[in-house]
């Protein structure tokens, strides 16, 4: 369990930890791969969330997924980009937490993922928690903990 003092320094507030949905680059499930490729390359993202028409989280799309879809053993078929919908090839297995998430769960998930999507109980996309935000908090702890708290090593009692 994460101590309250450490948690307080790690995240300035619960609201700053989650980047709101309206500030996150996303693609629609019915968008074509050419649109997703343009978004990924223009904004230099590795992966972005895929939403349906009701703004419910449905998956993730990445550059490797797009490239694997349009490649065969001999060539890359860029002409296919306009023919294939994102929903046909997106990754449907993605990390997410509900809005009332536990910080410890998020930390474990961010070890293997650049971001975690946040959804409500009905699956509506609420935003993302990025590894970057957690690293900012870790930096805050490294620089501020001993300025705010007296740190004393515990004495080890031999048994």
From TrEMBL:
It comes from the Bacteria. This is CBS domain-containing protein. Residues 86-136 form the CBS domain. Pfam families: CBS. PANTHER family: CBS DOMAIN-CONTAINING PROTEIN CBSX3, MITOCHONDRIAL, CYCLIC DI-AMP RECEPTOR B. Gene3D superfamilies: CBS-domain (3.10.580.10). InterPro entries: CBS_CbpB (IPR048125), CBS_dom (IPR000644), CBS_dom_sf (IPR046342), Diverse_CBS-Domain (IPR051257). Keywords: CBS domain. CDD domains: CBS_pair_bac.
């Amino acid at each position: 369990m994460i101590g309250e003092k450490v948690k307080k320094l790690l995240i300035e507030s619960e609201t700053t930890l989650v980047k709101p949905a309206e500030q996150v680059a996303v693609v629609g499930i019915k968008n074509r791969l050419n649109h997703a490729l343009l978004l990924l390359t223009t904004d230099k993202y590795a992966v972005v969330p895929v939403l349906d028409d009701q703004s419910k989280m449905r998956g993730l799309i990445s550059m490797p997924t797009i490239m694997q879809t349009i490649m065969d053993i001999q060539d890359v078929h860029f002409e296919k980009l306009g023919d294939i919908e994102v929903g046909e090839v997106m990754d449907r297995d993605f990390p997410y937490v509900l809005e009332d998430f536990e910080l410890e769960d998020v930390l474990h998930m961010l070890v293997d993922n650049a971001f975690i999507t946040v959804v409500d109980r009905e699956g509506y996309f609420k935003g993302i928690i990025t590894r970057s935000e957690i690293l900012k908090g870790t930096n805050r702890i490294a620089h501020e903990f001993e300025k705010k708290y007296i740190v004393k090593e515990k004495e080890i009692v031999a048994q």
